[in-house]
Amino acid sequence: MAEGVPEHIAIIMDGNGRWAKRRLLNKSAGHRAGAQALRRLAEEAEKIGVKILTVYAFSTENWSRPKAEVDDLMSLIHHYIQQYIDDSEKNDMRISVIGDLTRLSVDLQRKIAGLLEMTKDKKGLRVVLALNYGGRDDITRAARKLAYDVKGGRKTPEEVSERLFASYLDTADLPDPDLLIRTSGEMRLSNFLLWQTAYTEMYFCDKLWPDFNIKDLEKAIAQYGQRDRRYGGRNE
User: Cα(64)–Cα(118) distance, rounded to whole angstroms?
Assistant: First the structure.
């Protein structure tokens, strides 16, 4: 890892709708611009030494948006998953997905499964797409799986610990984020990685997501590097 660069950055990509509205465009144009911004930033993030980029692509709450907007988002996800598939031979990027995929269409689930298989052995930047993801849902599903294992005798109540519980989360094979970035001026987690961000540094900026670029990322990383990192009262 490059000196001073966090290994794992999580991003709440907020502001696509407002970006479009300011330009008198429809929301779908904002979502497309946001997806393009992610592709550009992922390439640049890898160059500066980021190892893992986890992004909030579609939340469990997004289903409550107008049907036309949800349909457009699903179509956009289809498009970009296919683009990642097409690009997989040209780059060393590994794609992972967290969230409950069972609500997605069968065709999209197949595409995602194919993409994960195609990139599983790649050694470059790991991009983690949070699709139909919610922090509370992640914790609830983990608790349910653990409860079934206790009920089935595979685990005992005495074995339950933070470490064991974390192994049931969608992010079981990932380190917790070092830095979380949220764009557009909002200053809340919005149900993103609630368990995993217990000791994560937060960075909030007013830039709308489609305008967020490598210079903005470098600024966030620079501020991260100036902080006195502590875990449970202990200096890092």
Answer: 32
Residues carrying an active site annotation: 14, 62
Q: Which residue has the tokens 């457009």?
A: 72
Distance CA 27, CA 32 (A): 9
CA–CA distance, 94 with 131 (Å, rounded to integer): 16
Q: Which two tokens stand for residue 149?
A: 């294992």
Per DSSP, helices labelled H in the chain are 16-22, 27-48, 67-87, 106-119, 135-151, 162-166, 214-225
Q: Which residues contact 96 (CB under 8 A, 6 or more apart)?
A: 116, 126, 127, 128, 129, 174
Question: What DSSP designation does 65 have?
Answer: S
**What residues form DSSP beta bridges with 8?**
52
Which class in CATH covers the domain with range 8-134+176-225?
alpha beta
Q: What is the mean pLDDT of each run of 10 residues along the chain (236 residues)?
A: 84 96 94 94 95 97 94 92 89 96 96 96 97 98 98 97 98 98 97 97 97 97 84 50
d(CA 58, CA 105): 14
Please state the domain extents for the chain: 8-134+176-225
Q: What is the CA radius of gyration of the chain?
A: 18
pTM above the 0.70 mark?
yes
Cα angle 181-52-84, degrees, rounded to a multiple of 5: 100
